[in-house]
Design a protein that fits this description.
about 5% helix, mainly beta, homodimer, three-stranded antiparallel sheet, five-stranded antiparallel sheet
Chain lengths: ~130, ~130
């Protein structure tokens, strides 16, 4: 599925009521994070609460509306909502009654990031179809 | 902005032509990854190509259509496209002429993930508004 080269791997995944969860880490060859795509049908929620031993999670809502539970507190989710949950956080999600909820979840080892963006990026003199060499 | 507790931080961010990039790591208190939200107006692309010293990146397209360049190869992006790019990959994105492109980018230290999902998750006996204690 998709495209790949020595430095990249690409694809497109969708989730629905029949196939509500897709783990993309193995599909993409990820080594620094795990990424999953999740679907909760309107009016339904995760059937369990969980925490993590090592990993920090980031939930990214793509579409729909929902409710996020962490450690006894609950708040609304909508498209564009982003939530960091530390390992010990007791978490679960639910879709509201009027819309299915679709979201990505990133798992990464807590405190593993050494540097990012300007400190880690390198400008390359390299042509593309829209940039000169 | 948003909600926070001892184990979580939440918010909602949007990008547009006026404010085309939002780095969320500091906003969310991320320690295992950096997350950014990017916007490319229709017909425009990144004005530079870049690679990374340490970090693996994952691009997640939320809306619009575009073109992804890695190491001299180009392929189409659409909502739902997900692309892993290893550190050395020379990368840049462009929006097609007919739709603005909105995407998340996750940066994480390559090879830093120790375990995930079933190996890292812990089931918790904990009540929510939709689950019994």
């Amino acid at each position: 599925m998709g495209h790949q080269g020595s430095n990249y791997q690409a694809g497109r995944w969708t989730v629905d009521a029949t196939s509500p969860k897709a783990f993309l880490g193995a599909e993409l060859g990820l080594t620094g994070s795990e990424l999953s795509l999740g679907f909760l049908a309107r009016g339904t929620g995760n059937t369990f609460v969980h925490s993590h031993k090592r990993n920090e999670e980031v939930y990214i809502v793509v579409s729909g509306c929902g409710l996020m539970h962490v450690d006894g507190e609950e708040f609304a989710l909508e498209a564009g909502s982003v939530v960091r949950v530390a390992g010990p956080g007791k978490r679960a999600l639910k879709a509201t009654d009027d819309a299915d909820l679709v979201y990505y979840c990133v798992q990464a080892d807590a405190n593993s990031l050494k540097q990012a963006t300007a400190d880690d990026g390198v400008l390359e003199k390299h042509p593309t179809s829209w940039l000169p060499a």
